Amino acid sequence: MRKGTDVELLQNLGDTVGKPLIDGDSRMSCSKVDVFYNNNNQAIFDISVDLGKNEILAMIGPSGCGKSTLLRCLNRMNDTIEGCKVEGEITLDGIDVYSKNIDPVLLRSNVGMVFQKPNPFPKSIYDNVAYGPRLHGLARNGAELDDLVEESLIKSGLWKETKDRLNKPGTGLSGGQQQRLCIARTIAVKPEVILMDEPTSALDPIATATIEELMYELKSSYTIAVVTHSMQQAARISDRTAYFHLGRLVEVNETNKVFTNPEHELTENYITGRFG
Amino acid sequence: MNTQDHISKEYNDELEQLRAKVLNMGGLVEDSFNDATKALLKGKVQLAREASKEDYKINALEVSIDEDCSNMIALRQPAASDLRNIFAVVKIVTDLERMGDESEKIAKFTAELSTNSHSMKFYNSLKSLVQNTREMLSAALDCYARLDAEKALEVLELDNEVDAEFINVNRILTTYLLEDIKNIEDTIKVMWCARSIERVGDHAKNICEYVVYIVKGNDIRHVIDEESRQGREK
Ligand SMILES: Nc1ncnc2c1ncn2[C@@H]1O[C@H](COP(=O)(O)OP(=O)(O)OP(=O)(O)O)[C@@H](O)[C@H]1O
Ligand SMILES: [Mg+2]
Fold first, then answer.
1. The complex's ipTM?
2. pTM (whole model) above 0.80
């Protein structure tokens, strides 16, 4: 392991250590991604990382290190931020998501996002889930839409609790239920990838455990990238863990390895809670 | 091994105290082994009786260190080198406690000897078995104190010598048995002592392996055995 102060370590930071890239087929791929906010403020530097099929990638690191920034690049949420510039290449199933003929709205249904604060629309539970399928014309008739809503609520573990109150407002659910509703809304449009930005930071431990369990279930059908400030959560749920530091991707390794024997000292300092 | 301080000072203090306790326990074990083997070599029954008096302290420390470790795992959720450190400590204290037991056995058999061992023929080979094991034990504890993995890798090789000496002692003891039937009782007791000394060498070797694990993160247990086995087969 390299030794030195964090500043020295950062100055000598070479390529990301560990295994940022996947040997086999990856679902998404970032290659040399830089992101600038207004006035050319660079937020992330030269990031290359793959998201494997059916894997959960946890993204950890101190506040402001660029986790959300990278996550937002993956489904072009950054397009909505004025002055934000993305360089490098990001692909989904080998197709460049920033190429001109990609419709960002369609991309976002393929690469869905769940936010820190549950944000159901001020509509009924049913309409929250049906919103996306209606927008993208995924159901041919009412019966098909009903099925799709039911299927999504079952997958997100919310069906039992809501099947008798589908017409009640989504905002009337508990925080944990709202978050599962948002996940149901995301999977209703049949995405390939689900991005989650601190999805449980507003939830109690039981609701958190339910969401984590759900992520584990969803893994068999989707690729998941999750930003979390909870080391234990990253350790519990993810297959690989990526450690970000001041806009750099320092290390990506199997989660087991990161939490028992990380390769980079910056990672070690962060996960053991040492002074940087 | 990470030498930077934690953000939580309390956590830092806990880890430091844990280390101090292990070193303290190591010191007690070393003393009791040294006293027991000294009594054996010098044939001092009184010393042998005193040697095992400290064993209760060793046992109490084992229990207390185990409890500290499980508390830290539950409350601090240690990761990476901290996790390896705590995990290794749990293992190290088990080996230390066993060494305490072995020393107790040596002391007990020594107290029961009817003749002084130095009047016996195998005295010299027993002496060098003791000497080498003492050195190995002290070096192993030193490696833990300094978290010196390179040194630990050297020290654990000494176990081969200790094993070879044990075989040698046994061979001499066997001939001694054959020479005179009157020797049987004492010889068997000394054999048990030699066996205990050799076991202390094994435990010291384990400690060296844990030191390597703490520092480097790889588990070398049985790897070396396997390599030498393959070496022999070639
Ligand atoms: N919309 C924005 N406009 C300008 N700068 C931004 C914007 N969003 C993020 N940044 C800057 O980019 C850097 C990375 O921010 P980002 O939100 O990606 O960090 P993060 O790792 O998600 O942090 P946190 O853990 O606090 O959510 C920060 O320096 C931040 O100030
Ligand atoms: Mg963020």
1. 0.76
2. yes
